[in-house]
Amino acid sequence: MEQRHPLPPFTAATAQQKVQMAEDAWNTQDPVKVSLAYTIDSEWRNRSSFINGREEIVQFLTAKWEKEHAYKLKKELWAFTDNRIAVRFEYEYHDDHGQWFRAYGNENWEFDENGYMQKRYASINDVPIQESERRIL
């Protein structure tokens, strides 16, 4: 199987690199590109949704970004161990009616030996904001 560097076990530098790679990929809003960082049978919990495998990841992200316009995300490394990384994040977007939101959340990631994310558990809350309150431009 192809490897997706950096590989576990993570150091502070390689964990930060994984976080930045994820942030960059998600900010493309390309569901297929994002899905390639995950194992074929990756397991997600995203809010109250349970998602399994790349095909469902692509479907989920396609629907997400059809509703979340001008999406911009910032991730921050929170903690790491051998093959796990914890991330704090926030992102901003507006809906079809022009209402802006800032979403806050935490993610727990687990990687396989080839550097692909096999588990992603995300807890997220959305807060309505005014466009003038945006911080992530």
UniProtKB/TrEMBL annotation:
Coiled coil: none
SUPFAM superfamilies: NTF2-like
Pfam families named in the record: DUF1348
Source domain of life: Bacteria
Name listed for the protein in its UniProt record: DUF1348 domain-containing protein
The organism's taxonomic lineage, starting at the top: Bacteria, Pseudomonadati, Bacteroidota, Chitinophagia, Chitinophagales
